[in-house]
Amino acid sequence: MSRIIAGRAGGLPLRSVPGTGTRPTTDRTKEAMFSWLSSRGWLDGTAVADLYAGSGSLGLEAWSRGAASVLFVEKDRRAASVCSANVRAVAQALRSPVPQVIVRPVDAVLDQLIAAGHPAEAATGPAGPWDLILADPPYPVEGEELHATLERVVRALVTDGLLVLERSARSAEPSWPAGLEPVEQRTYGETSVFYCQRVG
Questions:
Q1: Secondary structure of 80-139 in the HEC alphabet?
Q2: Cα–Cα distances in Å, from 29 out to 50, 61, 103, 152, 168?
Q3: Domain at 2-17+26-198: CATH code
Q4: Where are the domains of the chain?
Q5: Residues 11-45: pLDDT tens digits?
Q6: Transmembrane ranges (predicted)?
Q7: What distances in angstroms separate CA 159 from CA 19, 132, 198, one per listed residue?
């Protein structure tokens, strides 16, 4: 069973999505990822989006460790139901309002944000733009499809905002769109994590 590793809700168990339709981030990878983020100040008071959220494990870890707001996006209804249950459990543990879980495709949510004309300098919040985006798209999403999503992500980040992208360690490095610059790549077992910053 997955759990919140650290922070105000540290140790709280999380429900997992049944079946093989989702690929949960291992606790080892999550711990390494959040150690990287914590040491660089990416969690305190930030606005976060957890895209392809699955059980919500990544966004909830960010929330437990000090993020000011988190939005969860998951198109699969069964996974979104598990995510919602986990979000409510963590909200209760933190005695905080329950964050929003949007049951829609990621690209549709990003397109809606872009169409609303939110400038990157706007105040951050659950509706975006965001300081930090955590994205763990299905591994078959690659090539031009992934590139098109990353182009949307650039416009959904504040200037100097950060994207954390999970991929298979066996996959080729994504084609990065203009405005998104890789800062570092780390490999944790079978998972490669790219830390990328919005520039310009």
A1: HHHHHHHHHHHHHHHCCCCCCEECCCHHHHHHHHHHCCCCCCCCCCCCCCEEEEEECCCC
A2: 16, 12, 26, 26, 12
A3: 3.40.50.150
A4: 2-17+26-198
A5: 999 999 987 556 678 888 999 999 999 999 999 99
A6: none
A7: 38, 11, 6
